[in-house]
Specification:
It is a single chain. About 45% of the residues lie in helices and about 15% in strands. The chain has helices at about 10-20, 25-35, 45-55, 60-65, 90-100, 115-125, 155-165, 185-195; strands at about 5, 75, 80, 105-110, 135, 145-150, 170. The strands form 2 sheets. Strands 5-4-3-6-7 form a 5-stranded parallel β-sheet, with helices on both faces.
C-alpha cells in the first residue's frame, strides 16, 4: 500500500554527500580498517569511492535527477538487491535508486563491502529517520517484488532461474574497448588510465 510521506530528498542527499566529501574520524577509521577484510580495498581506493559518491550527490545533479515530489510516496514494494563487492561501494547506487524510487531495499550485500554500505545508510538515517524503515540487510532474499542482481556470467544463470518470475535487472560480466587514434590529449590519456587501472583493474 502506498503511503504519503514528505521527505526533502535533495537536501538530505546533498548533506550526506558533504559528509562523504569531508569524512569524519569515524569514517576514516572504517576506511583504514577495510583492508583487514579485503586486501584489495586499500585506504586510497576506499576513500576514492566514498568521495566519488559525495561528488555525485551535488546540488546541481540532484536538482536534475529528483522530481519535485521525489520521496513523497512509499510504495511498500520490496526490491531485492544482490550487490557486487569487486570495488568499494559498487552496489550503493542500486540501493540509492531503490530508496529514491520509494521502494523498500532488501539488501544482500557482499561480505567484502557490507560495512561501508551499512555506515553510509546509518548516516542517511541520522539525517532522515524515515529511511530506517525503508531497508534491511539479509543473507537470503525472500518476499521480494523485484530484483536487481550483479554477478558474473556464471552466477547470472542462477539469478535468472531464481529471480526470473519477477521484474528484474540482472548484470553479467562486462568488457569495454578503447580505440585510440594517436591524437589523444594527455588529459584524455590520464582519464583512460584511471578507467583501466583504478581499483587494480577490478572495476
Amino acid at each position: 500500500m502506498s503511503e504519503l510521506i514528505k521527505l526533502n530528498l535533495a537536501e538530505t542527499l546533498f548533506t550526506l554527500g558533504e559528509k562523504l566529501l569531508n569524512p569524519s574520524e569515524e569514517l576514516m577509521q572504517l576506511i583504514n580498517r577495510e583492508r583487514n577484510y579485503n586486501a584489495w580495498f586499500t585506504p586510497e581506493n576506499v576513500l576514492q569511492s566514498v568521495q566519488a559518491i559525495g561528488k555525485m550527490l551535488n546540488a546541481d545533479d540532484l536538482k536534475q535527477w529528483l522530481p519535485e515530489n521525489a520521496g513523497t510516496v512509499f510504495t511498500g514494494k520490496k526490491v531485492g538487491l544482490v550487490l557486487a563487492g569487486n570495488i568499494p561501494l559498487v552496489g550503493f547506487h542500486d540501493v540509492l535508486c531503490t530508496l529514491v524510487s520509494g521502494h523498500f531495499a532488501l539488501i544482500k550485500a557482499s561480505a567484502n563491502d557490507s560495512r561501508l554500505i551499512s555506515y553510509i545508510l546509518n548516516q542517511l538515517v541520522l539525517l532522515e529517520p524515515e529511511f530506517a524503515n525503508r531497508y534491511e540487510f539479509t543473507e537470503r532474499l525472500a518476499g521480494f517484488d523485484a530484483v536487481m542482481a550483479t554477478g558474473s556470467n556464471n552466477t547470472s544463470r542462477y539469478f535468472e532461474y531464481y529471480f526470473g518470475k519477477v521484474p528484474n535487472i540482472i548484470r553479467k560480466n562486462r568488457n569495454s574497448l578503447a580505440v585510440l587514434s594517436g591524437e589523444e590529449t594527455e588529459a584524455e590519456l590520464q582519464k583512460l588510465g584511471h578507467d583501466i587501472f583504478d581499483y587494480f583493474g577490478l572495476g
